[in-house]
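#struct-queue
[09:14] JT: dropping the first one here, sequence first, then the structure tokens:
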Amino acid sequence: MRWLALVFIGLLGGLFFYRAAAPVPKKSSGTKSPQVPDYLNFDFEQLLSGGSNMNNKPYEQAGGKPIPRGIANNNPLNIRENHEVDYDWQGEHDLDLDPAFEEFISPWHGIRAAARILKTYRHKRGLKNVHQIIYRWAPPSDDNPTEKYIEFVANSAGVDAQQTLSIADYPAVVAAMIHFENGYNPYDDKTITEAVTAGLS
């Protein structure tokens, strides 16, 4: 019996030594890595090709590279054709090959036209903040991701969605709208600012 007791004591000692030598797991701090907001993780290809309103904004092939329809049309904010009132936009393309969206001879003219609409929103409809503008521009009734659109534009332009925009805020707002409409913004700040200024004047 004595030898059994010695074996038992030896086993206990070995177990104690193993537990003391084993690495102690680090405790979790309880904090997680910051998550990138959803609006920065959009699958823009899916966004632009899904839904009854968005299905008219697919990527098209141009020069062997897929580009958004708005960029191809020099209409980066995707101004729709108005078949009830024939607007004669400055710089509108004569060919008019796209039956759904306006086409312009240059991006400058397309951005200017969008700014003209935003001017009407501001002065005739009283739409002076991002929330009001986007709800009119891309209403949820047309299956648009309106709330995501508002959040993206406000964050990208560095403004609150409910604040009244100053005239100086509009180039950044338009740049953000171009990004959301097309999945990226290929235009430089100078082009956007000059076109927006011309449209708002």
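[09:21] JT: and here's the second one, same format:
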Amino acid sequence: MTDLSHRGGLSEPIRPDGSLFERIGGREVVDWIVDGLYDRIELEPSKRHMFVGNLADERAKVEMTPLFHAAYGGHVDVVAFLLDRGAKPGPNSGPMVRHAANRGSSEFSGLLIAHGADASRVGPGPWVLSKEVADLLMENGADVNYPAGEWIWRTCTGNNSQRDNPDLVDALVDRGADLSTWLRGGTALHFAVKAGFLGPAEVLLDRGADPNAPSDDKETALF
């Protein structure tokens, strides 16, 4: 059973069964799909394909507007055209802003935000490497600690073809990433050293991470 309580205001862990979409709502499903977070949902292999298919269907129903397609294709001129013709970013606009921001484009991100897109759900990402983009997003509510532990998952675990990227970790900490955050029973340093990421580990230690902090299993980063 996976603890999904940090999404959608759930108070206890749930299983990804038929009631999932009713429990969490379309906005959360969209974020899972776009971010690839369904890889973190613990399912028997025989059930994963069906569940991922259901998630894809839900995204198509909730989010896949022409504006969404244009934004994900990086077509700023088409996005501007659609917005000018009355297209609305909608309540699930965070992934569009995230995608634009991670391209390093303040113009693209600003265009969406100016038309009502929600920057508060962008979460951590490479956008922090651009001062102009980072300033814009954070002025509009972006938080690198949303959701809790996500910045660790995206930079220190070695998942999803991650590479040793100390600059990204350093920029996230500059923008407020909480070094006291735990993910699955360990700190960012636990995950970085387990992945063999020397650069991020050095940044974390230089920025104040505790090398002797025990995990939930009473293991230090050295262990």
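[09:30] RK: nice, looked through the second one.
[09:31] RK: The chain has a mean pLDDT of 79.
[09:31] JT: good to know. The longest helix spans residues 45-62.
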